[in-house]
Amino acid sequence: MIRENLKNVREQIQAICLKAGRDPGAVTLIAVSKTKPVEALREAYEAGVRDFGENKVQELTEKIPQLPPDIRWHVIGHLQRNKVKYIVGKVALIHSVDSFRLAEEISRESVKKGVETHILIEVNVAGEETKYGVSCDEAPNLVKEISVLPGVRVKGLMTIAPYTVDGEKNRPYFDKLVQLSVDIAAKNIDNVSMDVLSMGMTGDYPAALQAGATCIRVGTGIFGERDYGADGTGR
Ligand SMILES: *Cc1c(COP(=O)(O)O)cnc(C)c1O
Rounded to an integer, what distance in angstroms lies between the CA atom of residue 181 and that of residue 21? Predict the structure, then answer.
């Protein structure tokens, strides 16, 4: 099932990219494995997945030692400052940085451990009240402020588009994030690159790829529906 799903998603990526005149090899598929057991991740690993996304620090730190060391772990969920110390040095990319204070904490911990941590700035493009992330207006300043911190490197932007049954409806938000990254890149801020655009999930990754996503985060489309249990707080 996971192998089949992966095959489908990869074929989709291939087809959409070719149609859009993009190199499919330039797209990173992140398998979002939150709430899924280690066996499911192992199955995806065996089918070639090396990038996994998790949104809870505790779940992430429990899974890391149980799986091969060549996996690139992506933190995609809201991150509390007091949890930063558990993940710095263990993850490839933190997608969800939306405040200077959080970046400062990542910087402090990275310097302490002698590592450089790659981060994305989370932008709430649609301005949804229920979502984290800075506004498009705030993003350039935040990037500039963070750029002087040692031990952290801004690699690009991330957004979570609104929930929709018609993914095409999110295209304007993806286009907006692309434009924002172009605007920020044009400022030529030292230590900052805008190479990574993390956008698109199971319901809207085709639109995100058409717009120019370099990283898509697919959970349900690979692992099937998530079971959040009775309290429904799995996010
Ligand atoms: C859960 C999650 C995803 C994956 O969502 P699906 O709809 O299952 O593909 C992607 N990005 C973030 C930030 C998530 O929390």
Answer: 20
The pTM assigned to this predicted structure is: 0.96
Test site for ligand 1: of 13, 30, 33, 55, most ligand atoms within 8 A of the Cβ: 55
Query: Does the pLDDT of residue 229 top 80, yes or no?
Result: no
Where along the chain do its domains lie? 2-223
- Residue 202's pLDDT band (boundaries 50, 70, 90)? very high
**What separation in Å is there between the alpha carbon of 179 and the centre of ligand 1?**
23
* Helix-helix angle 38-46:2-20, to 10 degrees: 50
3 state DSSP class of 134: strand
For residues 89 and 233, give the distance between their C-alpha atoms in angstroms, rounded to a whole number: 28
Ligand 1: residue of 5, 30, 32, 174 to mutate (most ligand atoms within 8 A of CB) is 32
Inform me whether the pLDDT recorded for 64 exceeds 70. Answer: yes
State in Å: Cα 69 to ligand 1 middle: 23
Domain 2-223 belongs to what architecture?
Alpha-Beta Barrel (3.20)
CA-derived radius of gyration, the chain: 17
